[in-house]
From TrEMBL:
InterPro entries: CFA/CMAS, CMAS, MeTfrase_dom, SAM-dependent_MTases_sf. Residues 157-416 form the Polyketide synthase-like methyltransferase domain. GO terms for molecular function: methyltransferase activity. One of its GO terms (biological process) is methylation. Keywords: Lipid metabolism, Methyltransferase, S-adenosyl-L-methionine, Transferase. The keyword Transferase applies. It comes from Streptomyces colonosanans. This is Cyclopropane-fatty-acyl-phospholipid synthase. It comes from the Bacteria. Belongs to the CFA/CMAS family. It holds the Pfam family CMAS.
Length: 431
């Protein structure tokens, strides 16, 4: 079809009942849309079939991961321009049913179906997890499978993205011009200071990743650390790092579920970027388990992504793309819900610090790392997986910047019956 881009743009605007803010380049080489705007490249008709078969975010994600859709220009700009059409409209069945009551919308769908060619679309990209793993009930078995999907994609790939620090949570920036490694070191030190670590104490690091927090705490604060993870690849890397630094006498790395830790009490617990995997139905159990593992007066530092409160609080599930390709079964609760659950478990919450802007900057650095090592990343994990990560991190950076999601460090104490919390009389002395 000659000039497919103009036809496509016209039909999409009729469907959305809004002007398309980006330029479109179609499979026939034609272009249409605002001059000078970044270009959304529709490489083939399969992209349309995917979008019509699964309208909204998941269809777009499938087309992107499969290489049916691309971007000519700045990815952040394109995502920002499309945000109002993707994330803010919703793609649930009720929204779609309401839209299809409009005859113009129905006509646009018929026109796009004709332009898309024969149905059905091809299968989802192989990087998409099976439906049974998404929205699971957070059993030990299903949690291990979900963690393996996300983390067991190769330590060499994560080193490209995360850099030498191998810390997969937001850094703590003194200045946007600083290095990622310095900012990650400062974040680990901030956690240690909030926990008030002293030589000889025992620290449990829940979701220890590649061992960076455990190594920092043992090396800089002379504590004994048990780090737990469900990822075999993370544990292998962490144990090697521990051995290379000569800290095997103070750091133990286990492949273990937090529900199976039974060698308390600990003086402190760090949980950095792990609680998002717990699930709403298990969160109180998680909080109670950690509470039981602390000695009276022991502290918990819970570092967790949160989403803004919504009118419908029946589900905390992450969005469709992330659930299907990144964090199957992940859930994001509002900050107030997290604090309430910690208090219900017995904790006294003493401090809450938002690091939202810090995470946005961290993600942009990770995206830059991935783009700089793009050829090797694709070789290590495949083109589809690399595309998943580029889209996921860039979209997440924009979500933090626009306050759609946030991240918070919650410092809580297992306050003794005497009421003497052991906390400093002046708050935030760690800053």
């Amino acid at each position: 079809m000659a000039d497919a881009a103009l036809r496509l743009k016209t039909l999409v605007e009729q469907l959305l009942q809004a002007p398309l803010p980006v330029r479109v380049r179609a499979w026939d080489g034609s272009e249409a849309g605002p001059p000078g705007a970044p270009v959304l490249v529709v490489h083939n008709r399969r992209a349309l079939r995917r979008l019509l078969w699964k309208p909204g975010e998941l269809g777009l994600a499938r087309a992107w991961v499969a290489g049916d859709l691309g971007v000519d220009g700045d990815l952040y700009t394109v995502l920002d321009l499309l945000a109002g059409l993707i994330w803010e409209r919703g793609d649930d069945a009720r929204t779609l049913a309401q839209a299809l009551r409009d005859p113009d919308v129905r006509a646009a769908v018929r026109g796009l179906a004709k332009l898309a060619g024969p149905f059905p679309p091809p299968p989802p990209p192989r990087e998409e997890v099976r439906q049974g793993l998404r929205g699971h009930l957070h059993t030990r078995h299903s949690d291990k499978r979900a963690v393996s999907h996300h983390y067991d994609v190769g330590n060499d790939f994560y080193e490209i993205v995360l850099g030498p620090s191998m810390v997969y949570s937001c850094a703590y920036w003194d200045s946007p011009e600083g290095t990622l490694e310095d900012a990650q070191r400062d974040k680990l030190e901030l956690v240690c200071r909030k926990l008030g670590l002293k030589p000889g104490q025992r620290l449990l690091d829940v979701g220890c990743g590649w061992g960076s927090m455990a190594l920092h705490a043992a090396r800089e604060h002379d504590v004994s650390v048990v780090g737990i993870t469900l990822s075999e690849e993370q544990a292998t890397c962490a144990r090697k790092r521990v051995a290379d630094e000569g800290l095997a006498d103070r750091v133990e790395i286990r492949v273990q579920d937090y529900r199976d830790v039974a060698d308390g009490p600990y003086d402190a617990i760090s949980s950095i970027g792990m609680a998002e995997h717990v699930g709403a139905e298990r969160y109180l159990e998680y909080a109670r388990d950690l509470y039981s593992l602390l000695r009276p007066g022991g502290r918990l530092l819970n570092h967790q992504i949160a989403r803004r409160p919504q009118r419908d609080e029946s589900s905390y599930a992450v969005d469709a793309f992330i659930d299907a390709y990144v964090f199957p079964g992940g859930e994001l609760a509002p900050l107030g819900t997290t604090v309430t659950q910690l208090e219900r478990a017995g904790f006294e919450v003493r401090d809450v610090e938002s690091l939202r802007e810090h995470y946005a900057l961290t993600l942009r650095r990770w995206v830059a790392n991935l783009e700089a090592g793009w050829a090797r990343a694709q070789h290590l994990t495949g083109v589809g997986r690399a595309r998943v990560w580029r889209l996921y991190m860039a979209a997440s950076a924009l979500a933090f910047e626009s306050n759609r999601i946030g991240v918070n460090q919650v410092l809580a104490v297992r306050t003794p019956d005497s009421g003497a919390s052991g906390m400093p009389s002046r708050s935030r002395i760690w800053n």
